[in-house]
Queue: 2 jobs
Job 1
Amino acid sequence: MADVLTVDHLQKKFGKFQALKDITFSIHPGEVFGFIGPNGAGKSTTIRTLLGILRPTAGRATIFGQDAWADAVSIHKRIAYVPGDVNLWPNLSGGEVIDFLLRLNGQWHTARTDELIKDFDLDVSKKARTYSKGNRQKVALVAAFSSQADLYIFDEPTSGLDPLMEEVFQREVLALKQTGKSVLLSSHILSEVERMCDRIAIIRQGEIIEVGSLAEMRQLSRSTVHVTTQQPLTGLKALPAVHQFKAKTPTQAVFSVDAEAIGQTITTLSRLGITQLTTTPPTLEDLFLRYYNQEGGKDEQ
């Protein structure tokens, strides 16, 4: 099946400032795709370009095989979007805003909408001007999850939500995935991305520096090892695959090891008489920090 979304060497300049230097990735049907990076890296600029709000300086983005800029009107009929800071009509109630957003896309308030209102614990009778940031996000999320879209785009959607509501959001995204929907999720909450996403793109200073599944990225990174042996751990620190070696006692240490060398390292440790051993694969946060600490293509030892 053709990709739902394709971004090909996208660039965007604002005067002399180049916000996007080289953005290339794609989203497959039924995939939850994570888009991560710090503030100012280019996440929101990329998403606004995908939505047809900004015209690219160079490169191209297509959604459902259509040009994101030239065919924005027809594309929007098949997508649902939630920004990180939702502005609502102040004199309308939350319920009126939800119904209006649904009707804009030719859809209607259903029992599913009522279920989402309950799950997100939203008082839809209040005027939008009285809502906190979190409640404004809830209004947009209820409308989006009520929509029958083919692609859902979330740009920091849980900003302002408490942990319980974040759980509701994650559950709803996983439900979309189970029905074959595609999702683009930009988030600074790495545990959220780690739990839900099939593949991840890391953006730094307007460029995509890595795209792949978490499992693929972990193969390129290091695991943390805690070990206790019968004999002293002499010479282990000198191994090329061992990094950040910290000895607690002569026979107890913690260090990181390159993924491809774990077997060889354990073989070396076994000769010293292992009494306790735990290995922990890198988390998404570990991977993210490693990529962002890279200087000149080399990471810190």
Job 2
Amino acid sequence: MTAGITSRADALALVRRSLQGFATQDEITGLDEHQPLRSALELDSIDFLTFVERLSAGSGRRIDEDDYPRLATIESCADFLTTPG
């Protein structure tokens, strides 16, 4: 696991925290873990890049452009963050 992420619960919390500002807290809390983030929250490419930067900073893990497809949903983000990289 990465330095800042010690559990799946930590990863899920980081993902939801990283989405703040793109939607209301109620919308973020109500998101299904399998729902595509970009379409559900209408994230444009700049918003998505900001989200990725927040994930990277919060987890201490470098996230390359090749990794972006693995960040499609809350669940896939948590999987990515808790997989040794």
